[in-house]
Sequence to fold (215 residues):
Amino acid sequence: MRTRSKLLLATLTVAVMLASAVATASAGRLSVSEARFRITWSSLELSGFATNVRCALTLEGSYHSRTSAKTAEALAGYITGATVRHPCTGGEAWAFNGTENLEGTTLANSLPWHIRYESFSGTLPNITEITDKLVGARFLIKATFLGITIRCVYTTTATEPAHGPTRRDITSRTLTSHRAEGSIRSETGGCPTGTFSGEGPITTPAGARITVTLI
Fold:
C-alpha cells in the first residue's frame, strides 16, 4: 500500500511538472491591454558635457500589435510623439519632431522611431522587466564641452540603439515605469559620447495603467 502511494505521489509530481513546463513553453507571446502608451520623465539626464543636461521629456507611441512574440529584434511599437519641455538645466535639448524651433528654423521630423524587443528579466511567467531597443531617436543638444558651447546631434541607430527596461509588477501584471540607460554617440564631429539616465512612469495617454500578460 505504501509503495502504491509513493508511486501515485511520484506520478502526480511528474504530471504537475510537465503541466508547468508546457504552460511556460506555450507562453511565447506578450499581450498588452492598451494600444497606446506615454512615458514621462520629469528629468532625463544626458551626461558627458561640462555639466549634465537635464530635461523633462514625454514620449508617446503605439504598440505594433496587441500581441507580440518574445523574439529578439521583433518590432514592438513606434514612438510617434516626442516633446521636450523647455528650459532644460545644464544646457538645452530639442527633439527632431517637425515642430521644434531653433532660432527661427524648424527641425526636421525623424518620427516615427522604432521600438524593437530585446529581452526580459525574471522567471516565466513572472516577468519583472521587458527591455527594448529604440532606433531612430534624434535629438539636438546644446551644452558646454571643454569650455566651448557646442551643438551636437545624437541619433540612435540599429547598430547603436538606446536600451531601456520597462518594469512590470508581477502581482498586478501592469507596467510601472521605464528606465532610460546606456551611451549614445554623436554624429557631430568633436562632440562627446553621452550617457542617458532617468526613470519615468509609463501609462496610456489618458493616464491608465497598461497590463501585460503572457499567452
